[in-house]
Structure formats: structure tokens, C-alpha cells
Amino acid sequence: MVDTTHLVSNWKNTTLILVTAFSLLLFYNIAFFRNIIAAYPLTLGNSLFIGSIALLLLGLITILLTLFSSRYTIKPALVFIVLLSSCASYFMDSYNVVIDTSMIDNIINTNLSESADLFSLKLVIYLFLLGIVPSIFILKLNISYSTFKQEFITKLIILVIALAVIISQMLIFSKSYSSFIREHKMLRYYTNPVTYLHSSIAYLNQKLGVSTTVMQPVGQDAIIPASDDDRELVILVIGETARADRFSLNGYSKQTNPLLQKEQVVSFNNVTSCGTATAVSVPCMFSFYTRDNYSDEHARDTENLLDVLQHAGITILWRDNNSDSKNVALRVPYQDYKSPDVNPVCDEECRDEGMLAGLQEFIDKQTAGDILIVLHAMGNHGPAYYKRYPGTFEKFTPACHTNQLENCTNEEINNAYDNAILYTDYFLSKTINLLKHNDDKYETAMFYISDHGESLGENNVYLHGLPYIFAPDTQKKVAAVLWLGKRFYEDSLNINTIKKNADNAFSHDNLFHTILGLMELKTAVYDQNLDILSYARKNHLTRLTTR
Fold this sequence. Notes:
Elements: H1 5-9, H2 11-27, H3 30-39, H4 44-67, H5 74-95, H6 101-108, H7 112-117, H8 121-140, H9 148-172, H10 174-183, H11 194-208, E1 232-239, E2 265-272, H12 278-285, H13 296-301, H14 305-311, E3 315-320, E4 334-336, H15 359-365, E5 371-376, H16 410-436, E6 443-450, E7 455-456, E8 462-463, E9 477-484, H17 486-492, H18 495-500, E10 506-507, H19 511-518
Parallel strand pairs: 1-5, 1-6, 2-10, 3-4, 3-5
Antiparallel strand pairs: 2-9, 6-9, 7-8
């Protein structure tokens, strides 16, 4: 028989693990069980299964905590976990988001101003009650450690018991778990702290892995054909968090595009994003790879659209009023417009229209060649939608004036979001006006496309960043608008043909090749099947491909 006397001397260690595990289950997994109950209404049979899920999750948490329970790591590890879990619990409870690898990447790439938008009194309360108070208790607890052998045996016994609980529950409710795993995969992403710990390890493995791949060139053969005797001036606007269904150009009941509707624009109303977060979508849309073949490693190790354009000698400028270019603009001229030192249009925050300041002077200095200007807008970044537009654009009222969306009605949240779309309409209209001033010298065009959409409370989900396979269309269907100057649609492109195809299904995969087409480059990497304007081109592309 195994001598268990060491369990008595090590009882505080064991009890601390079990109490922490039970507390994490009970107080930090509200979002998880809220979503479980939504999927399994509280009948007798469902209640038994939900109880089984709770036991299984308790076993998983206990195993995780036990693995950190050496004499040198148990206190700092538990403090670290409860602090992080308190923050994770706040965001999952408040916005119904999940903390997977994509969300961690989004968090890492969020700047200070965006982080400040997420700060609230409720977050402080969560951090204090679920983070700081338990941490003080853990740190003050006096633990008498046993020998290494005794601690090892104790941990082994706990692990065996926890594993036995997990296995027994899966056997007893095997039929229910088979259905659960197949039909409700999304729910496992709400487990706290299991999901974010697993995702953090996966993220670190992904980011810290040493790449031995040399930067893969793309489109080094790109040239401007001799037959192209017109200079192109294209402004590519990368929007933020703009849903396609909130543009009145696409049939939305509120008039969110009063200025764009006066212009000769085409709104593509069936465009799907590459990801549900900026850190994924922006590098993906500029990548040569389609979404099915895209990865962070590919983005890091392969040249992108801007490189191809530079190979052809096109002048490029990236101006950013968002967090940054997500490594897309590392090899081109880059200007940060988030500061009032640079951006002349700043009040509560610096406005997207400020990126237009001085652009005409920049254009005038380019005495030869084509020009592509990328404007990365702040757009509709949440949850503080009310900050995304000046007060004069608050047309839709009442509007939510806090980042704590749970304190606003659905009407207020939607009105604030729609006001931000209204401001984007104004910003794009000003961009078009700038291009009109250059119509005599250039073939001018503006292409606007958002990086991802946004959940505004549908099915109690807010913001964005859900795993792509589970994300609703509200996070994946994005706004996309094209404006062509008179020389483009008179000489090169048939605007009526483009409008006829505006309802077709497109995606971020099309951006790479559509911009190559607009810039009229000749290169082997161009694929006319992915250029959404290909069949509207009057001379039908024969000069754009070498294949």
C-alpha cells in the first residue's frame, strides 16, 4: 500500500490547487456556462450533462495547475493565472469574445490608444475581485513544502484522480460528448484559463520559431508595358471594422453613404474577409497567397503586393491612422498619422481625413511614373465607436457614449457604429475629390476595402476576432467600394460591366490581382481570374500577363 502520510504535510499545497481550480471553474467561466446553457436548455437530462462538463473542466484546470505546482513555481504561477484569468473573464463575459491565437495576436498588435478604449471601471472591478484579492491570499498563504519525492507522489495522485474524473465523465456521457464535440466545437474556446493558456503556448511556438527561409521574391518580372502611356494614380483605403450591410449603398435602411451615392462608385456587396482581426486580414489581403494557403509564416517570408509594385518602379506611400501596417509596409515609405504632430485633424483623437493633408504636394513632387497611396484608416474600431467620428457626424441618435457596451441599448450601439460609417463616407468623399483634381494628369482610382466586420450584439456577441470557422458573417462580410476617374472609365474600364458584377462573391484574395490590374502591370504572378475588374477591361488584359 502506498504511504500517504506525505499528503498531510503537503495538504496546504494540495488544497490551494484544488481551491484555485474550483474558484476558476465557478467564478471565471460565466461566459462558458452561459453559452453551454444556450446550447443545452436546462432540462433534467441536459442539467446532468452540464454537470458532467463542469467536472471535466474542473479536472482539466486541476491538471494544468498541478503541472505548475513545484515549490518554486506554485505561487507565482497561480498569481499569474488568476490575474490573466480575471481579465479574460471580463472580456468574455462582457463581449462574448474568445482568447484564441488570433485574439492574442490582435492583443499583441494593439497600440496604447486602442487598449485605452477597452479600459473601464468594470474591468478594474474584475481585476480587483478576481485577480488582486485572490493573488494576495495566495501570496500570504504559508506553505510547508515536502521533499521532492513526496511532492512528486502527491502530484501524481492528483493527476491520476483528475484524469480519472475526465475519462469517467466522457465514458458515462459518451453519446452526449460525441454530439457536443461535433456540433458545438466553438464552446470549448470559452474555457478559462484552458483556452488562453493553450493558445498562448501555440502563439509563442509560432512566433518564436526561427525561420530559415530566405525572403521569397514575388513578381520581380513586373514592368509597366510600353503601351501604357498614361500615368496611374490609385489610392487604396484600408478600412477598419466596416460591415458591408451597414453601407446604404448596399441597401441599408439608414442613409450612411449620402456623399458616396452622389459619386460614380461601385459598391461590392458580397466581399468576404481573410480573417476576423486586423493582424490577420491586412497582411493576408496584400499577400500573393489566397486565404486557403495563407499563414503568418508566408506573410513574414514572402514579398507582398507593395514589393511587386516597387519592382515595376511605381512610387508607393503608406499613411497609417490605425495601429500600424502589420509588417506589410516594412520596405516602402511609411508615415504614422496617429499623432497631432503630424496629423492636422485631431480632437478627441486624430481623424482619418488628416491623412489627406499634404497629399497633393506629395503627388505634385512625383514628376514621372505611377503612384499608389495606401491610407490605413481607424474607421469603426470598437468598442468606443463614439470616438471614431467628430460630434458633427452624430446623425443617428441616441448613440452609445461609452466603451462598456453592456451599459448601452442595442439601438445606441448600432447608432454609434453607423455614425462612424457616416464619417467614413465623408472621408472617402474627400479622397475622391482629391483624385478629381488630378484627373487631367492621371488615370485616377480609389479602392476602399475593410479588413473585417464587427458583431454588434447579434446572438450576444460583440466586437470581432472569433475563430474564422465559427465567426458569423457580420465579422466576415466587409464593405468594398470602387471609384474610377473619368480617364479610367472612358479609356480603360467599362463601368457598366463592373456594376453588373458587383453582386458577385469576392474576397480579400482578389485585392492583390485587382490592384495589379488597376496599375496595368505586366507580370507572371498576375491572375486575371482573381482580378474583379478583368472582364470590364476594354482591351481585355492581353497586355497584363505573360502567361
